[in-house]
Write a structure and sequence with these properties.
Helices cover 40% and strands 11% of the residues. By secondary structure, the chain is α+β, with helices and mostly antiparallel strands. It comes from Letharia columbiana.
């Protein structure tokens, strides 16, 4: 086995050396390349040369070929061809084995143009290929060239990160990779409790959805492969315990019963000109009430600070995946795993009840709707942000059914500019945005979620046409777009949203195949 490890690591080293001759994909993605699609938008080809791709999957390549023969519109076909493999093509920065365990796979997945691994992003990037896991029949640790192997490597590396720094959201390459840590100039003067080393952590913003993302990728892998043995081999159970401990620590209120101020286990302060990039009240955030049963989140999935720290979408996502993880632990059958499963089930039930009790608020037009954030005192923030988890994505994160009456009322509120302050409109695209890029910038991610959560053919086709028509001819999905000028956009290389687009097209292939036969010219 040691010889196999050394040969694989040698191959990785050779691959890294070859990659040095490849163009920086952030630059490559910002320029057009032939061959063009030939459609009215004449979309560019954006896949790196095969020798410059960071991972290749035959299952992904055959999926692209199948969809290209299924999709009628040349621009939609090209956008899928570019976007679906983007994480594999560009973002598998390193893949190898743990130094202290020769068969423990590790996968370092960067978010795109930032050379760091986010727990949330990497889990979502892998979710793009979830439907292909059951086509990857060899899930044994002897096979290191499959989608299943990438999943195992991400889960193992996330476990390591969570055991060392469970309040942090973004991490540096593992020491085994030989890759140098990246400098995060924004975080240089951060004052964070608990402290961390910037050689292992890129940024330490506590986000409840990051913890939920680890549970999600773990149970997704298990349900797709039935590879139960994997979860007892390394540090996964300990990492789940760390997730539970961290979440429970953040149920703390601002004030104790006698009126004294509680000491929070996590605080964050940053020297910045952006109010969204630091926390009020000496790094603790705005006060939250006692006894709600909700879990605090200091930051949103956009990495922006919460106004009210009972962030409902993350509580939804966490509640759901506590249950799925409990089922996995129960299947493992050890005393430790079943005891932990019982704790997760109980927390999921109480959290769901708390969301219903405190997260649903009255709206004068739409009736009962979900708030984006609450504080337990009656303070509520009724809006949405494009990043997942969002209120719009509640069915996608599997918290509730798409036809849930409160969700449908919430959805109607969120997709109107007169009731959602971050619903952006313009001649290019209409979609939810957020404070991260500010007013006037819609996020294609929200348009993709809108398609996922709609059963209306007109709504689906209209949003899909906007996505095809708003890449500035480059043929990749961008982070955000000026709603009146598609040449003004953020992040030419953002792998998560590109994979999400591909995932959505595959969903339409099953759910609404006739849409893929339409013209979007």
């Amino acid at each position: 086995m040691r010889l196999v490890v050394l040969l694989f690591q040698s191959l990785c080293t050779s691959t890294l050396a070859a990659a040095q001759a490849c163009p920086d994909y952030a630059d490559y993605a910002a320029a057009p390349h032939a061959p063009f699609s030939g459609g009215v938008y004449n979309l560019s080809y954006q896949r790196p040369a095969p020798s410059c791709r960071t991972f290749t999957s035959p299952a992904v390549e055959s999926t692209i070929a199948r969809l290209n023969s299924t999709i009628t519109d040349p621009d939609l076909s090209r956008l899928f061809e570019n976007s679906f493999p983007n994480t594999l093509d560009t973002a598998i920065k390193w893949k190898g084995y743990a130094a202290d365990n020769a068969d423990e796979e590790l996968t370092f997945v960067i978010t795109g143009d930032i050379n760091a691994m986010w727990l949330r992003d990497s889990a979502n990037q892998m979710q793009s290929y979830l439907s292909l896991l059951n086509t990857t029949t060899d899930t044994s640790n002897s096979s290191n060239d499959t989608i299943a192997s990438l999943y195992r490597g991400v889960i193992n590396l996330q476990s390591r990160y969570l055991l060392s720094n469970p309040y942090c959201n973004s991490f540096q390459p593992p020491s085994e990779s030989g890759l140098p840590p990246s400098i995060n100039s924004a975080a240089t003067n951060d004052v964070v409790t608990p402290s961390y080393a910037n050689t292992t952590v890129y940024e330490c913003k506590y986000e409840l959805d990051s913890l939920a993302a680890f549970l999600e990728i773990s149970t997704d892998y298990y349900m797709a492969t039935n590879d139960l043995a994997f979860f007892s081999k390394y540090n996964w159970v300990a990492a789940v315990q760390a997730v539970l401990n961290t979440a429970q620590s953040m149920t703390i209120s601002t004030y104790a019963a006698n009126g004294s101020v509680n000491t929070l286990p996590y605080t964050f302060q940053r020297l910045t000109t952006s109010a969204e990039d630091t926390l009020a009240n000496k790094g603790t955030g705005n006060p939250v009430h006692n006894g709600t049963g909700l879990i605090r989140s200091a930051f949103r999935p956009s990495d922006d600070a919460c106004i009210y720290q009972f962030f409902i979408p993350a509580n939804m996502m966490f509640a759901h995946h506590l249950n799925t993880t409990s089922a996995l632990l129960t299947a493992m059958g050890t005393t430790n795993s079943t005891d932990l499963a019982t704790e997760l089930t109980a927390l999921s039930a109480s959290l769901t009840a708390a969301i219903t009790r405190h997260g649903i608020v009255p709206d004068p037009v739409h009736g009962a709707v979900y708030a984006y954030e609450v504080d337990g005192y009656g303070g509520r923030n009724v809006m949405d942000d494009a990043n997942i988890p969002s209120l719009l994505s509640a069915p996608l994160i599997r918290y509730l059914a798409q036809n849930d009456s409160v969700y449908q009322a919430t959805r109607a509120l969120l997709l109107r500019a007169d009731t959602d302050p971050y619903f952006m409109r313009g001649s290019v695209i209409d979609a939810v945005g957020g404070p991260h890029d500010g007013p006037g910038f819609a996020w294609p991610m929200a348009s993709i979620v809108r398609i996922f959560t709609s059963g209306d053919d007109g709504e689906v086709a209209g949003s899909l046409k906007e996505l095809v028509a708003s890449t500035d001819g480059l043929g990749l999905i961008h982070e955000s777009i000026n709603t009146f000028d598609q040449s003004i956009y953020t992040r030419p290389w953002f792998s998560w949203v590109n994979g999400l687009f591909g995932q959505m097209v595959l969903d339409l292939e099953t759910r609404k195949p006739e849409i893929l036969k339409r013209s979007f010219q």
